[in-house]
Amino acid sequence: MASITLQPARSEGTISRYIYGHFSEHLGRCIYQGLYVGEGSAIPNKNGMRTAAVEALKRLRVPVLRWPGGCFADEYHWEDGIGPKETRRRMVNTNWGGIVEDNSFGTHEFLELCRQIGCEPYINGNVGSGTVREMAEWIEYLNSDGDSTVVRKRRANGREDAWNVRFFGVGNESWGCGGNMRPEYYADEFRRYATYCRTYGENRLYKIACGPSADGYNWTQVLMQRAGRFMDGLSLHYYTLCGDWNDKLSATRFGPEEYYRTLKRAAYMEELLTRHSALMDRYDPDKKVGLIVDEWGTWFEVEPGTNPGFLYQQNTMRDALVAAITLNIFNRHCSRVAMANLAQTVNVLQSVLLTEGEQMILTPTYHVFDLYKAHMDAKQIDCFVEADPVWEGEWSQCGLSASASEKDGVITVTLANLSCDRALPVSVRGSGRKEAAGRILHGDMAEHNTFEASPLFLKDLKDISYAQGAFQLTLPPCSVAAVELK
Ligand code: AHR
User: Fold this and answer.
1) What element of type H or E holds 317?
2) What pLDDT is stored for residue 423 in this prediction?
3) Residues 302 and 411 in one domain
4) Residue 439's closest CA among 387, 483, 400?
5) CATH at 326
6) Which ligand 1 atom is the nearest neighbour of the CA of 172?
7) Selected catalytic residue, list 25, 75, 137, 173
8) Atom 6 in ligand 1: which residue has the minimum CA distance?
């Protein structure tokens, strides 16, 4: 028996909707063939955007989409991706598979995609191989309404009004693929670039500095100390990767040991957020600078027979549990975590959608985002969780993960039973509510949807009873649920 005690009077604040954001890079089949199939495609599309993908993302109420990278961002020159498609510059995507990028998806196309989805854009600029002027002019192209040469070019390319893009990243992984810089050097570079990242009109630019990888605490310390007052957000990248880069786990073939190891690696996000937040608190006690976890998710071996540079992996119930654990952690850290972006939306790493030609499937991770969407912009509520541990030794952890929030009088509790083979009876107390309804995703730990069959989808959570101030329910093994209490 496990229990959740809600404490509605105790809250970290509002859960930013942007925690439920996504990331799409020019990598493998994420943009091309995934989100963007081209205007002339036989696959149903609107202005080149795959209709089924747009509709699925709209259902998730995706709040923000990051683009164009990732490592690609620091080799991307935005002017190559505007103007007539026939004359756009072709380049080799050196980071991802060495394929030719024809730049047919550029600034206008990305902003059209965001318009169709109904989400805000988050554009990541190039520090590694770009210039201050190039970045400044991209922002002018995006956001200015002045009669400048740059704005005239935008208008000649068919866009009259500024797009008013708010979120802007100044470099990506500048400690690695974005230039192999030292934190002291990047802190100065950030200050220089950020100076020319201008605000146009009423649209105040939200400038995101490149932050650490995983436990790179020194990077956070140096950035906050030297450049904290020039930034609105500091990014953090952490992937659930078990083993090393040359010996990754399979996405679909694994046993209980690898299952629990992966979940434990996902739960490490808790320690990362706690420690990076503590460092940020030192320089920014009022929490003005948001922690932007703009790359997170599982990283497994690519599907056999696929291009290793395309990072195409399947998505099982194990991924669903990773998403549930991670999103619960983000919710609990909402006073510092201002945005997060799952890597990556379609066909790359922990995707919510997979495509093959015209076909498209929803992954288990998609359904977790669907379950959790009630948390967006809701007031976080503390919850105290008690449950037996699962597994033994290094990969052991509490068998129940949960978070809670309140909006319009309704309390939403999202919870996950980590055990791969045992059902878990749970009592939920302290809500002051008497009615409950829930939905659940469950399956075997390695189960996944394929282009032949999609056995994993959301079902009603039946048999929630109420007695003496507590709800009782049972979570099947390897399950994720959302319960609404009214
Ligand atoms: O998401 C894949 C890659 O992982 C990104 O391009 C990079 O930023 C990170 O290393």
Assistant:
1) helix 317-332
2) 98
3) no
4) 483
5) 3.20.20.80
6) 8
7) 173
8) 70
| 101 within ligand 1 shell (Cβ under 6 A) | no
The answer to whether residue 184 is catalytic is: no
Name the residue with the closest Cα to ligand 1, atom 5: 70
Check pocket membership of 70 for ligand 1, CB cut-off 6 A: yes
Please check whether residue 235 is in contact with residue 211, taking contact to mean a CB–CB distance below 8 angstroms. yes
User: Which residues form the domain of 417?
Assistant: 383-485
Tens digit of each residue's pLDDT (9 = 90 or more) over 92-127: 999 999 999 999 999 999 999 999 999 999 999 999
d(CA 120, CA 97): 29
Residue 330 identity (one-letter amino acid)? F
Q: Which residue has the tokens 């509605």?
A: 8
- Per-residue pLDDT tens digits for 386-433: 999 999 999 999 999 999 999 999 999 999 999 999 999 999 999 999
Per the domain annotation, does 5 fall within a domain?
A: no
d(CA 124, CA 302): 26
Which of the four pLDDT bands, split at 50, 70 and 90, describes residue 243? confident
Residue of the CA atom closest to atom 8 of ligand 1: 70
Q: Ligand 1 centroid to 71 CA: how many Å? A: 6
Helix H or strand E segment including 264: helix 256-267
The answer to whether residues 404 and 326 belong to one domain is no
Percent of the chain whose pLDDT exceeds 90: 99
Average pLDDT over residues 347-361: 98
The pLDDT confidence band at residue 242, using thresholds 50, 70 and 90, is confident
410/316 same-domain check: no
User: What's the CATH code of the domain at 405?
Assistant: 2.60.40.1180
Sheet holding 479-485, edge to edge: 459-461, 436-442, 479-485, 410-417, 400-407, 379-386, 2-7, 424-429, 470-475, 465-467
Nearest CA to ligand 1 atom 2: 70
Domain C-terminal end among 378, 412, 431: 378
* C-alpha to C-alpha distance for 119 and 64, rounded to whole angstroms: 5
Active site residue 86: no
Query: What's the pLDDT at 458?
Result: 98
CB-ligand 1 contact for 30 (6 Å cutoff): no
